[in-house]
Amino acid sequence: MMEGINAKYVSQKISKTRWRPVSSSSLQQPDIFATGSWDNEDNKISIWSIGENGISGVDDEFEGDPQLVCEHKHNGDVLDLQFLDQDRIVTASSTGAVIIFRHHHNSQTLSVSQLWERAHHYPCDNAPCTGIVCNSPEIVTVGEDGRIILFRADQEGVLRTIENADSSTIHDVTFLRTTEILTVNSIGQLKIWDFRQQGNEPSQILSLTGDRVPLHCVDRHPNQQHIVATGGQDGMLCIWDVRQGNMPFSLMEAHSAEMWEVHFHPSNPDHLFSCSEDGSLLHWETSSNSDTPSFLQGGRNTSIVSRSAIAPAGGNQSLISSWLTGDSCKGRLETTHMLPSQTLSVNSLDVLGQCLVCGTDGEAIYVNRRVPI
Amino acid sequence: MEEVDVEPTTTPIPGFDSNQKHLGFVWGPGDILVYETIYKASGGSAGGCPFVHEVRKDEDIYSPILRKLFNESHHIFVGLQRIREDLPSKNKKPQFVSISKNYRSVIRACMEELQQVAVYHNDSLGNTLLSLELIWNLCEVLFIDAAPAGSLVLHLLDWVRLHKADVDEKAREVLASESPAEHQAYWDVVISYVLQGRMDEARQVLVKQAALQPAARVMFKLLDNLLMKMPIFNPGETQTLTEFDVKWRHWREEVDHCLQDQSFASNRHLEDICKILVGDEDVLLEYKELLSTWYHFLVTRLLFSHPTVKPTELHYYAQSSMHMFLDTRSVPEPLDSILLAAFEFDIHQVIKDCSIALNNWWFVGHLTDLLDHCKLLQSHNLHFGSNLREFLLLEYASGLFTHHSLWQLAVDYFDHCPEFGRVYLELQIERVPLDTERKALKVIRICEQRQMTEQVRSICKIMAKKALRNNRLGSALSWSIRAKDAAFATLISERFLQDYCAKGTFSDLDLIDNLGPAMLLSDRLTFLGKYREFHRLYGEKRFSDAAKLLLSLMTAKIAPHSFWMTLLTDALPLLEQKEVIFSADQTHELMFCLEELTSGKSDEDIETTKIELLRLALARNLAMAIVKEGTVEV
After folding, report:
1. In the 3-class helix/strand/coil scheme, how is B212-225 assigned residue by residue?
2. Hey, is the C-beta of A128 within 8 angstroms of any chain B C-beta?
């Protein structure tokens, strides 16, 4: 249970929160995050600041109360939000549009920089765009219409569309490699797509045998490209090794309702965070299973603070991640609740460095600057 | 039916002239739709206003700052409901007081934010919140904390001090000036402090004056002494109320003595202070402006005349204070009558007056709920069955449900209304507009958690129908599975099969190939899955397995009759293979199926060429099979 985590009520239901990336060279903690709202007549994206970070030793609860820096009207619910780079934010809208906002630092304003109006659509209706992943300057989006679209920021048109990639809604997408993505859909399948191939077929499909539970979120291990974590409607956390066929490596009961987001910590991947409709935010910590201290095992890389980590060249393929021990007995997996009390659904979370931010349907944002990792 | 206490307010509708036309209206959940009818006031019809107006009573719910109030108080409300019932009540009182303080701090936070924002606008909302906090605070002191005699006056003093913060501001101004003792507002500050019972601060300020008039040093010292010695009841000490009373009377006599002695005659201000200390009401009334409200007057009066007042005696003093303070001509404001009702310990009157005065149920709903938890409301069945607390919460939550975003909060309120909450929720939840899948999922989750299967089914059906219209068969199937809706799953399978017949190939193979246990939801779906499997087996050249499967689809009656022709046609290539695939028995069964299909049908219906082809192929296959089975390997 974390102390010093207070709610900031913001008069809008928060659907997404994301930290602005910090440059990998500096060791600074993040201080700016963006939020998107949903279910409002006028939705907005907003940028918030949690103030100075250079002050050490001052541990005041009221410091770091997020202050609104600027905001901009958003047409439709914000269904996903990602920082493309330090200045630009890409959002997925429930109208099916994909929008790039630019944050002007000198005037502290936001403006629309690019707009793809009906990127996701049905022949007559609107189809919400449900997920975005970026690898600047490329942007991949997925939507309820089952399309996968590849954009390039600064280019007007669409780079490539995979039509009818899925007969059900695609809920989330993540990069496996620079040319490979993985999507999860509402009939419980993980599909891997290779952009180097021309067709409209996935290169691999994985799913659980047994009940096909819709999957809502996916995240790839920062250092090991074959490990992904997924969460779905039944609140179970699954860790998959995509090289090894059809069975997830481990299934863990996490939440009592839909899991909306799952994130590996970008620099300390032994830590995983998940948030859910049941109002809880869990912090998972795994530890390696042998007596040798972990830094001698080769199971970890030196911390590279980079959001789009690709395995370093010559990376040791026999790295055994502690997530894939296939044995989730209690002794080696600790779970902690991060929010002080039961809230309405926690829709989104993001973690960077020692800072965690999350947003709820109770119109509150929680920021924790002392995450123990 | 009770009489209406106040005149109802009239709201003019723009563009509408009530002399010309009659107005039509229809009630909505939180508002009214009004429109102009064709009926003229004097009969006949003519063209008119084409608009439909929506009239809303509660504008506050759309204020972005008030939204924080609704959300934070929801959090507190839910926490309050979860306090365990089995704890003895004396342990719960501090918890209830702290919850009451939480509610009040939320109101204060909103008020401060409103004040920051509404500098130039008329801050009527801020003033309303101020009054709300005042009323709530008084209810907390009188009802929830239920202070006994002795502490009661102290709590009331705190209450007044909290709501008369301008004294400190004035004091700061005076003390910051060059010569405080000569400041225009100097004596106002001193007297205000005395009126609020803040003797130490009064003494500190008096010192400045004393320094200026060394000649009157003795007089100032005397007053200072009196102020210092004023007894204040301390509930923590072992001193009983009677002991305090004795001490206090003794002190009061001393002050009176000084007055009689004319010790302060030379300085009007000091004499006034002395008179205030003995509780001289006429002098108190002279300082009406400093007191500014009748309840401040009341509390000051009690402090200096009856500090050991009992809660049951309060109402007498409250009424008399109000009469003394207010002009007899002025009409008491709603706030005054509410406070008076509180002093009279008439909780129901307080709630009733607040309900009338305010335009949404937030305040009375939460306050009543808290008072109910403190077991202060007698259960009072209203004519329509639920008790007061539930009635107010239902009204409040129904109001919330009309809001496009705050409806989620209302769900928890309905949950804690045991008698009608569920019914209200069932009716309201189906009317939440569903624009995205994510919202539908949240609504369904709410229904599932409360075992509202009808609503789940209906919502899933809406979403599935929408998906089907947009040709998203996988999504439609996923919704049918969630609702366990076999009929819809059958419909979807029919679509797939129709597509197949039309195009010759399956669309959405990723879905059909990976149906898993969902296949068992409906027979048609099972057939679809198995049929696709047949095609796969055929593609993999596992002919005997394919053949077996094909046959079983017909004999086990999984395949619908309408599809049998297609299946038999699919069997043709298997029959015409060089190698014998269907055994003699299997061929017999196929022939039987064919006969079953063609019997009872008129000649025009049957495609005679196909049938003949099939019969020929079956006969040939039978022959080869018999031969093969009859051959003995030598």
Report:
1. HCHHHHHHHHHHHH
2. yes
Would you say residue A195 has pLDDT above 50?
Answer: yes
Question: Cα–chain-centroid distance for residue B285?
Answer: 45
- Residue A348: list chain B partners with CB under 8 A: none
Reading the block at residue B129, the tokens are: 């919140």
Q: Is A212 on the interface with B (CB under 8 A)?
A: yes
State the amino acid at position A93 in one-letter form.
S
Say whether A350 sits in a helix, a strand or coil: strand
Tokens 């002080």, located at residue: A340
Would you call B116 exposed, middle or buried from its count of C-beta atoms within 10 A (0-12, 13-18, 19+)?
exposed
- The nearest alpha carbon in chain B to A145 belongs to B472
Nearest CA in chain B to A7: B72
Q: What is the 3-state secondary structure (H, E, C) of B38-94?
A: EEECCCCCCCCCCCEEEEECCCHHHCHHHHHHHHHHHHHHHHHHCCCCCCCHHHHHH
- Spatial contact of A181 and A192, defined as CB atoms under 8 Å apart: yes
Nearest to A70 by CA among A85, A48, A91, A41: A48
Which pLDDT score, from 0 to 100, does residue B604 have? 56
CB atoms within 10 A of CB B439: 17
3-state secondary structure A163-175: CCCCCCCEEEEEE
Give B492's strand partners. Answer: none
CB contact under 8 A, A257 and B445: yes
Write phi, then psi, for A145 (nearest 5 degrees). -85, 0
CA distance B321 to B325: 6
The predicted pLDDT at position B561 comes to 78
What is the rounded distance in angstroms from the CA atom of residue B587 to the CA atom of residue B431?
Answer: 57
pLDDT, averaged in runs of 10, over chain B (634 residues): 61 73 79 78 61 77 86 93 74 89 93 77 76 94 90 92 87 86 86 91 87 84 89 82 91 90 85 89 88 91 91 91 81 87 91 87 93 79 71 91 91 93 92 90 94 92 90 87 87 85 78 78 86 87 87 83 82 83 85 81 67 87 88 79
CB B417 within 8 A of CB B386: yes
**A152, A159 contact by CB (below 8 A):** yes
Between A and B, how many residue pairs show a Cβ–Cβ distance under 8 A?
Answer: 134
Measured CA distances, B444 to B24, B110, B430 (Å): 36, 33, 10
Nearest chain B residue (CA) to A128: B436
Q: Residue A272 and residue A264: Cα distance in Å, rounded?
A: 4
Give me the half-sphere count of Cα atoms (radius 13 Å) on the Cβ side of residue B268. Answer: 3
* Look-up of token digits 């390039």: A152
CA A46 – CA A38 distance, rounded (Å): 12
Sign (positive or negative) of CA dihedral A74, A76, A80, A84: negative
* Site of tokens 């974390």: A2
Q: Please give the C-alpha separations between residue B348 and each of A237, A345, B35, B305, in angstroms, as whole numbers.
A: 52, 36, 38, 30
Q: Token digits for B250? A: 């003794």
* Type of residue at A290: S
Q: Which long-range contacts (CB under 8 A, 24 or more apart) does B325-329 make?
A: B325/B285, B325/B288, B325/B291, B325/B293, B325/B294, B325/B297, B326/B294
Q: Residue B615 belongs to what H/E stretch?
A: helix B608-630
Q: Which of B74, B438, B508 sits opposite A167 (nearest CB)?
A: B508
Contact B445 A277 (CB under 8 A): yes
pLDDT of res. B1: 43
pLDDT at A305 over 70: no
Which SS3 state, helix, strand or coil, does residue B164 take? coil
Provide the ipTM.
Answer: 0.86
